[in-house]
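Students often ask why inverse folding is considered easier than folding. One informal answer: many sequences map to the same fold, so there is more than one right answer. In these notes we will look at a single instance of the problem. The structure comes first.
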């Protein structure tokens, strides 16, 4: 197996530990990988502004794959995040998702993401929890008004108790005409993007963008939404804390996120 020149990594449960901090050995390994000519890309269900501080900590400027691949950005000459690729939800689909979430009275938190914006109806427990994780706060604005406008909607995140999320997921799965990609980043988090949006599709875009052969790519993650990119990469790696289904299809399983499994992957497969 040859060395890889492009690594694409999930964030939560992979890059960061359970305290949402990047372990020191992982920071050192990634910086060394970059110095040796490798490209390390962050890919997450997070919004772009929930990823920039981590990229800055690692000391590099590469594309950020946000919303599971629905919006890929890179800093321009002025330091602003500019889109390289985007695939928003259909306007009618976004409105229907919101209506179904509210009509069923599930007590869930609905979050709408457009480019660099995060909109919510109100900021309470679930929104505050997510803000603490991502490092920035949402904008409180009536979502019916947001969805009635012309802004592209790249992702809808619904947070709530697991039984409520189960009900909504079933209702949305029963609506194929909406052309949705539905995944769980956590049992209590339902991530909704346009059909065809995956981290695997983002990997394909990036290897073409950097002109790197598939065999020289690696994808690493821990959750079910990482499974497509782990399958699609030249080398697929699962974290030791990862889902069993992911570990079963991966080429390798490394240590968990609290002891820096990414550093192990870089040592084994990096340039």
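Output (designed amino acids):
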């Amino acid at each position: 197996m040859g060395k890889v020149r492009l690594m694409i990594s999930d964030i939560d449960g992979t890059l960061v530990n359970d305290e949402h901090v990047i372990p020191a050995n992982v920071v050192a390994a990634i910086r060394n990988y970059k110095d040796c000519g490798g490209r390390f890309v962050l890919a997450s269900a997070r919004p772009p502004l929930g990823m920039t501080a981590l990229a800055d900590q690692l000391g590099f400027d590469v594309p950020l794959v946000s919303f599971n691949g629905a919006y890929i950005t890179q800093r321009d000459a002025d330091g602003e995040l500019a889109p390289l690729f985007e695939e928003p939800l259909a306007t009618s689909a976004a409105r229907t998702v919101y209506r179904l979430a509210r009509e069923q009275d599930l007590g869930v938190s609905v979050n709408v993401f457009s480019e660099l914006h995060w909109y919510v109806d109100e900021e309470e427990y679930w929104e505050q929890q997510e803000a603490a994780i991502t490092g920035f706060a949402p904008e409180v604005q009536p979502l019916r008004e947001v969805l009635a406008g012309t802004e592209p909607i790249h992702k809808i995140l619904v947070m709530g108790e697991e039984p409520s999320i189960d009900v909504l997921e079933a209702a949305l799965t029963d609506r194929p005409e909406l052309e949705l990609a539905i995944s769980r980043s956590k049992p209590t988090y339902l991530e909704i993007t346009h059909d065809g949006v995956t981290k695997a599709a983002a990997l394909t875009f990036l290897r073409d963008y950097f002109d790197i052969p598939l065999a020289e790519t690696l994808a690493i993650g821990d959750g079910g939404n990482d499974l497509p990119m782990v399958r699609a990469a030249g080398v697929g790696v699962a974290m030791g804390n990862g889902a069993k289904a992911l570990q079963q299809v991966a080429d390798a399983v490394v240590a968990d996120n609290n002891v820096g499994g990414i550093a192990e992957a870089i040592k084994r497969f990096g340039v």
